[in-house]
Model the fold of this input.
Amino acid sequence: MPITKQTIAIIGSSSIIGRSIAKALSRDNYRLLLFDENSEEARTLADEITSTEKGADAEFLECTHEACWEADVIFILNNEKNLNDLSEKIEDVSIQKVVVVTLLNSDSAQELEQIETYFPNSKVVGLYLSTSISNTIHHLSRHPKALDTLRSITASAGFQPVQKELNTA
Done:
């Protein structure tokens, strides 16, 4: 764990997985920037985190671009929304950053390839939760350093990371 705080943007913070990850990460040395289209829920979550977790650093932002600009790692946890539209909004601030996106189909290399077309200059990592083993979270990527970064983040949050590195194209 780095001595300086990593800044993590969580887009879709009021989703079930978004709330879970935000609350888990708030217990460690991270600065959390929360955004959700339901701004009231995201604002409430940020307030809840800062009032219940001693030393937690969580902030609600009203703009995805601003949240992602400040972030070292970007979690996009609302895939039901149009990723193409979102990628256009944050394209210039996601370059060379780790962008973590929930996969709708577990272990889907094809789905990850599609997501990578939206973020061609980012280190995309697909994320999906195990349906059979509680607290297990799977990571899928072509970027070994991005996998290492995500393993460190999710393990510190109390998840059991399982990783799969895909061959580079």
Remarks:
- The chain has a mean pLDDT of 90.
- The radius of gyration is 15 Å.
